[in-house]
Every structure is written in structure tokens, then in C-alpha cells.
Amino acid sequence: MPFEQELMEIHVNVLFRQNDAGFLTDINEPPYDPAPRLFLGATRAGTIYRYRHGLDSRISKKLESVIRPETDLAAIIRILESSGPITRVDIGPAFVFPEVRHRSAAAIRMTESNKELLRAHFPYTYEELAVKSPCFAVVQDGVAVSVCRSGRQTAAAAEASLDTIEAYRGRAYGVEVATAWAAEVQSQRRLALYSTAWDNFASQAVARKLQLIQYGTDVMID
Question: Quick one: which of 129, 108, 146, 122 has its CA closest to 29?
């Protein structure tokens, strides 16, 4: 397993598309919305950071003075506000799946031949299955009710995107589909990653049940 800092580097490459100079350009999934102005990935070994392409160099130099050696989030926000109002701050843990040895038979792989099962509750996944695979679902009453797919991915890793419709929550379906998804990603010799927000308690509960390993914390500011 890579060290925490290396995992965070892989993670940021999964989350965003970047130009040749290493600046963020777009979110790495359709419809490829603009990346945040600043991404911070904090680990016990240190913090990596990426700026969005086009950020004023005077702003980036000021930011570096408060990112290193210790991150001062309040100061970062004040500096970014000088280039325009802050509209969003997302903070949350970043995890990696341990090696998955067993997957639930209840989770079915979604393919072009059975993707109609997704249409009722997960129309976006139905439409984008080609770029969201691998994708696994629990099917009840003739439709998919819980899904784990690749939200964003590269040749090195994939980031889990997990959703269960409200009427079927509390039945461990999320654990079943996430385990099956991770096992498939790992069989492709890629890392299976998972991240969420600190205020998403349901998502964090799934991470605990899956016994995921936290390697860092994400901060995205726009």
C-alpha cells in the first residue's frame, strides 16, 4: 500500500483533470465542471495543494506562505476572498479500501445488458454507465435500489460513488455494493478510494462498516 502522501497525490489526480503545468482545470467526470480554486490534501506526512488554472500568481504566492509549514485555513480563505467571494468550502476525510477478500453475491454487476435496472432510480448512472464502470447494484422489486460506481477514475485508482434510495437504507446494501465494487477495482490492480464530507454522517457510517483506512483530509475551496 502506498504511503499517505502518495495516496493523496493519486487521489487528487483522480478527482481533477490538470494541465501540463500541474494546475487544476476540471472536475474529472462529466460534465467536467471547473475545478475549485484551491485543493488541499492534508496527511500526517504533510499537505499537498493545487491551484486552479488562471489563479492570480500574487494570490498563489500569498497562499503558499500560510499553507506551509502548517495550514491556516482561516488565512487561506481571507486571501482567496481578495480574488473573489468564496461560494463553497468542502472538508472531509479521504479513505482507501483495505484488500477485499470476499464480495457479496447480492451485488450484481451492471453492464450494457442489464443497465435498464438502473433507469428508475439512477438515471444518471444509466446514461453514463460506460464511464462509471465498474458499477454494482443491489436489485429489489425489479429495480436497482443501491449502487456503487466509479465516480471518477484513472489508470491508477477509482473513487467510489455510493447511493441507496431512502426506502431501502439501513439494510447494509451500501456495504454490499461498495465491497463488490472495491473488489473489482482491486482485481484490475488499481486502488479503491472513498471520500466524503464531515457533515455526511451516513457516508461516514458506511466507511466505518467497511473498515476503510483514512489517509488524509480533503479541503476544496471555490
Answer: 129
